[in-house]
Request: fold
Amino acid sequence: MTYTAAENRYDQMQYRRCGASGVKLPMLSLGLWHNFGAITPFETQQSILRTAFDHGVTHFDLANNYGPPYGEAERNFGMHMDRDWRPYRDELILSTKAGYDMWPGPYGNFGSRKYLIASIDQSLKRMHVDYVDIFYHHRPDPDTPLEETMAALDHIVRSGRALYVGISNYKPEQAKKAIAILRQLGTPCLIHQPNYSMLNRWIEGGLTDVLREEKVGCICFSPLSGGLLTDRYLNGIPADSRAGHDPRFLKPDSITEEKLTVIRALNELAQKRGQKLSQMALQWVLRDEVVTSALIGASRPQQILDNIEAVNGPAFTQEELSAIDAILA
Reply:
């Protein structure tokens, strides 16, 4: 059945300018990290993507090794592209990344020019697109000169393979240097993608200052801390939860009683605000406009609908923000 997007899709989302660029991103973007590999039925993937776009989520985020197995999320997305998304390509921001282990041998990892250019070429073939909107270096490389990695990103833009470039998982000083090199090359850094949530606040120790000063966007991944900042684990580990059936990234033994005490206290505060915990957690990472967007994952369409409510949640009072700080401390 041919897909036709909802006519009112842009009425259901708010958008923020990405740094000093001309690009606006939806406040919630869809990450294809977990549920677009071989373990998720194609029809489920399709319904998640369609539900997201029907509600104004215009940004789909991938990486070369998302799966399982490696490359499978991009391969699946290529089929979705052919079936649903080609008519809407100019309404989408598509991103992918390279930097982690992807293929055997010394040229399938980290940040060499050889790896990054080979990887983007492979990604474009898998995704069935001529270019991506954003290409990221996925993590810093301790051995390759930063100048080589950034020059490869610059070349990828100049060759038409990507419109913009970004960095991910870079610490403040590394980010500042990378941003400066890219600016000098004439291909500004559009965006940084760090891990950020109520349970992982490391970017507040300098990175948000760098991004604000340099006028670079920020899109945080794992804003729900792998699902911990939802109501799924308040009373233990459900068999159908991520920790219960796919513990690659959220291991059952990491869900400690100490963490659950914090999560339950946050859940009580969310209920007082008339929200689900997940909605409050998403709204919290977006409370500072230096964060352009938050990346959500979904295993079913209803999670998209629940999360989108966060965009229109009640503004935090100073008392609520102080209460959250006290709980997290």
Observations:
- The chain has one domain: 9-328.
- The mean pLDDT is 95.
- The chain has eleven helices and ten strands.
- Residues 270 and 284 are 11 Å apart (CA to CA).
